[in-house]
Design a protein that fits this description.
79% of the residues lie in helices and 0% in strands. It contains ten helices and no strands. The longest helix is centred in the N-terminal third of the chain and has 33 residues.
């Protein structure tokens, strides 16, 4: 009897997780196209295949849903920086960070565009996370880069500006994918173009920070 109860609880938990995931996926799709003000809860519910009442059970308001989507995006967005490791040689670590950031741009373009949209609006609903977890992580990784500069392993560059340049370059391919495709005829979804992009961005940035 207990075993049956456990199975039922497990199935319910899985169903709840799947429903939440469907809602967040639908919300990301719509928010990235129309923003928070141009998206209605009814649209999200319909795209997620749930009732409005059911959606509001999990996320009591459109703002709560939007913040949940933004926090999920921030987790995705910060993953490559969290993987930035001091035990790699400096140029290898930075090249790997660039590759991971371009991979995020390729695999999560909607997330990147919504994050960009939120930044352009002044990040009113994400300010606490930016000045908290994001700043702490950037400061931690900047200290690693500063240590490499101080020990003569990298050229004399400001760690924050290096990180900003990597963000700007790699996220361009997601945020301005339409422009990239119009000019080149390809996007990061094209394996050959992705490989060429990784190689070129890595070389251009690494050559600017290599010790001469």
């Amino acid at each position: 009897m207990k075993q049956d109860t456990g199975k039922k609880t497990g199935k319910r938990s899985q169903a709840v997780s799947e429903k939440r995931a469907a809602i967040l996926t639908a919300a990301l799709s719509l928010f990235s196209q129309f923003g928070i003000h141009g998206t209605r809860i009814e649209q999200v519910a319909e795209q997620a295949g749930v009732s409005k009442t059911n959606l509001l059970y999990y996320y009591p308001s459109k703002e709560a849903l939007y913040i949940a989507v933004l926090r999920q995006i921030l987790d995705i967005w910060l993953a490559p920086l969290k993987a930035f490791r001091e035990d790699f040689t400096p140029l290898v670590a930075i090249k790997e960070y660039i590759r991971l950031k371009l991979t995020v741009s390729r695999d999560h373009p909607q997330a990147s565009r919504l994050f960009c949209l939120e930044m352009l609006q002044g990040a009113p609903l994400l300010k606490a996370e930016l000045t908290g977890d994001l700043k702490t992580l950037v400061d931690e990784k900047s200290a690693i880069i500063a240590g490499w500069v101080a020990s003569g392993k990298l050229a004399d560059v400001d760690p924050h500006h290096l990180i900003f340049m990597i963000w700007a370059t790699t996220q361009h391919y997601a945020d301005f994918a339409t422009q990239v495709e119009a000019v080149t005829g390809a996007t990061l979804a094209d394996e050959v173009f992705f490989a060429r992009t990784v190689d070129n961005v890595q070389r251009m940035i690494v050559e600017g920070i290599r010790v001469r």
